[in-house]
């Protein structure tokens, strides 16, 4: 049911996704749904938590995580995210980003679960940013967490732009600008 929720919400949004649709996609009865979840909102919270776990390998498995230079790891992460921007928009957009846009003002449990998921992403990215700052320097007012949040904001914004055109090209352009910004921030205009 969690996977069905991820897929359906990314494709059509939280409000448009019904319990019946989730049950049909998951191949379960409504009784089975309500055996596991008290409500659609409870499923949404569980799905946000599962999304966080689903994203965790992004910081452990790709080849760039093994690079010795922290800036190369950071730029490699951005390249990794760029490579994901392909195919149907709903296949690369963010479940929690999609859901929080709809439910932030109407469901505190969903908003909080989405905040925790996005914060976990930023916290996982921050150590490489911190190491990059230590090695290359950075403007005084830049913080590792602040830059991680900016990276997340650009990614989420690029997903929204891709939804407006139903095409990943505009998202790729945004992520290319993000990589350029990170290089310039660390005065590495010619870096990989």
**Relative strand content:** under 5%
Order of helices and strands: HHHHHHHHHH
Mean pLDDT figure:
95
The CATH superfamily is identified as Tetracycline Repressor, domain 2
Kindly identify the CATH topology: Tetracycline Repressor, domain 2
Named CATH architecture: Orthogonal Bundle
Which oligomerization state do the chains in this entry correspond to? single chain
CATH top level is Mainly Alpha
What is the CA-based Rg, rounded? 18 Å
* Low-pLDDT residue intervals, each spanning 5 or more residues: none
Helicity range of the residues? Answer: over 70%
Largest sheet: none
Tally of discrete structural domains: 1
* Broad structural category: mainly alpha
Shape: elongated
Structure annotation, total helices: 10
Give the strand tally: 0
User: Could you tell me how far the N terminus lies from the C terminus, measured between alpha carbons in angstroms?
Assistant: 41 Å
Model description:
The chain has 192 residues and is mainly alpha-helical. The chain has a single domain, classed as Tetracycline Repressor, domain 2. The protein is built from 10 helices and no strands. α1 packs across α4 and α5 runs antiparallel to α10. The radius of gyration is 18 Å and the shape is elongated.
């Amino acid at each position: 049911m969690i996977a069905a929720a991820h897929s359906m919400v990314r494709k059509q949004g939280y409000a448009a996704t019904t319990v019946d649709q989730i049950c049909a996609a998951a191949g379960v009865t409504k009784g089975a749904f309500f055996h596991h979840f008290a409500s659609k909102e409870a499923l949404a919270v569980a799905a946000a938590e599962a999304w966080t776990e689903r994203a965790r390998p992004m910081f452990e498995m790709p080849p760039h995580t093994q690079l010795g230079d922290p800036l190369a790891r950071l730029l490699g992460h951005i390249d990794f995210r760029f490579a994901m921007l392909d195919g149907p928009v709903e296949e690369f957009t963010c479940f929690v980003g999609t859901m929080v846009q709809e439910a932030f003002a109407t469901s505190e449990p969903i908003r909080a679960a989405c905040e925790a998921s996005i914060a976990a992403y930023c916290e996982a990215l921050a150590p490489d940013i911190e190491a990059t700052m230590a090695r290359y320097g950075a403007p005084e007012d830049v913080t590792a967490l602040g830059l991680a949040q900016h990276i997340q904001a650009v990614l989420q914004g690029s997903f929204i732009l891709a939804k407006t055109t139903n095409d990943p090209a505009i998202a790729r352009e945004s992520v290319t600008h993000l990589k350029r910004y990170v290089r310039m921030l660390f005065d590495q205009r010619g870096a990989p």
